[in-house]
Amino acid sequence: MSRHTVEARKGAGYKLEAGQTFKVINTHGHQVVDFWAISTEDPTEFMSMVHTRSTLTKLVPQVGDILYSNVRAPIVRFVEDTSPGVHDTVVAPCDLPRYHLIGVEGFHDSCSNNFMTVMGQYTIGEYRQAPESFNLFMNIPWTEDGKLSFEPTVSKPGDYVVFEAIRPVLMVVSSCPQDILPINSGNPVEFDVEISG
Amino acid sequence: MSRHTVEARKGAGYKLEAGQTFKVINTHGHQVVDFWAISTEDPTEFMSMVHTRSTLTKLVPQVGDILYSNVRAPIVRFVEDTSPGVHDTVVAPCDLPRYHLIGVEGFHDSCSNNFMTVMGQYTIGEYRQAPESFNLFMNIPWTEDGKLSFEPTVSKPGDYVVFEAIRPVLMVVSSCPQDILPINSGNPVEFDVEISG
Predict the structure, then answer these.
(1) Across the interface, do B54 and A95 touch by the CB < 8 Å criterion?
(2) How far apart are CA A136 and CA A162, in angstroms?
(3) In chain B, what are the domain boundaries?
(4) Which one of A169, B28, B51, B70 counts the least CB within 10 Å of its CB?
(5) Which residues contact B122 (CB under 8 A, 6 or more apart)?
(6) What is the DSSP letter of B24?
(7) In which residue ranges of chain A is pLDDT below 50?
(8) Looking at residue A197, what is its pLDDT?
(9) Which residue numbers of A have CB closer than 8 Å to B's CBs?
(10) Do B142 and A59 touch (CB under 8 A)?
(11) pLDDT per residue over B125-159, tens digit each?
């Protein structure tokens, strides 16, 4: 087992073999973690939220569910969740245009930029931009008439989720640097991951 | 004004200049139409459901809303809707892997394949696969706890939606060939489009 801390506002990538598990720990409780899984055998194949929703007929995957790739193949299994299960698949990972739209001038860290930085480090594939992310601990409630809102997490310090790699994958995670909307309670922080032996 | 019929189970593309409008008519009432808009100035920029949901804070765009691209720029305006407003942004355009998952053997028409065929005809950009589509007239209700289901349309014959091009775009539409799930009432048919002068 190896344990790693992912710095506040930054991203990281970890290569896993099939059968290894990846635990994402919300160490301080209020942090959103954007999460992607990329096939290392075919880097154009990635865990896809829109295909996962279609196959599961759910807005949000739960423990026991398989997550599917952009060619609708099983890629990751959701095996454990000690949080209240409030995660998001319907909003995009933050990016510089998003920050500019909400008033930021100049540079701001973003989950999309963190994804691209990690992909550059591993050079296992070419992405023009980050695919849709599985936004762990992110609280985006929907109403009966389809309104969405950006709310603080409901997870507690130490809550974690665990995913099993069904195939060799690069797990990419980002400490969401959103400090304008309340989703990280205004204070993006570090979090930890653990990878099974 | 020009009017065109899109054949059952097939796709078509139409280049519009900024300010032109694109009417999609559910001629027979029960047909789902998968819809994309691609910038003709930069073919890597496309109308993106995940970015549109995030910006509108809505699961489904409505009349008066702007639809946003994958770089969060306005690309299309939703200007009229005579249907009950039941459309979908959360499930993926059908593709061959989808049909194989639900029991089809061999080839089956799909909205994703129709998109790729149209893009091949216009050769304005290179897509590995169809982006998320705006699924017009598609009835994918969600429950309070996030369950989705695939239901028949609730639109009437002749119901239509109108979009205005904010910039030069290729409008791509597909008559969804889904004949296994009930979304097209088991009978995919032709529909019509009208483009303003």
Answers:
(1) no
(2) 11
(3) 2-196
(4) B28
(5) B13, B15, B170
(6) E
(7) none
(8) 82
(9) 44, 48-51, 53-55, 57-60, 70-73, 90-92, 95, 97-98, 101, 128-129, 132, 142, 144, 146-150
(10) yes
(11) 679 899 999 999 999 999 999 999 999 999 999 99
Closest-CA residue of chain A to B101: A72
Report residue B121 as tokens: 């005809």
Q: B162 pairs with which residues across the strands?
A: B23, B80
- Global pTM reads 0.96
Mind listing the pLDDT tens digit for each residue in B150-178? Answer: 999 999 999 999 999 999 999 999 999 99
Please report the beta strands in B53-100, taking only residues with DSSP state E, as ranges in sequence order: 66-68, 74-81
CA triple A56-A62-A64, angle to 5 deg = 85
Q: Between the CA of residue B7 and those of B116, B137, B174, what are the distances in Å?
A: 16, 17, 9
**Global ipTM:** 0.96
Dihedral-angle region of residue B85 (phi above 0 means left; psi in -120 to 50 means alpha; beta otherwise) = left
Residue B135 tokens, joined? 């699924």
d(CA B43, CA B40): 5
Q: Is A145 exposed, middle or buried (0-12, 13-18, 19+ CB in 10 A)?
A: exposed
pLDDT of residue B62: 98
What sign does the dihedral B84-B86-A139-A129 (CA atoms) show?
negative
**Distances in whole angstroms, Cα of residue B114 to Cα of each of A2, A5, B180:** 46, 45, 18
pLDDT value for A124: 72
CB-nearest to B92 from A54, A128, A142 is: A54
Which of A55, A98, A146 minimises the CB distance to B59? A146
Q: How far is CA A125 from the centre of its chain?
A: 18
pLDDT at B2: 97
In this predicted model, what pLDDT tens digit does every residue of A119-151 receive, in sequence order? 999 877 679 899 999 999 999 999 999 999 999
Spatial separation of the C-alpha atoms in residues B65 and B67, rounded to whole Å: 6
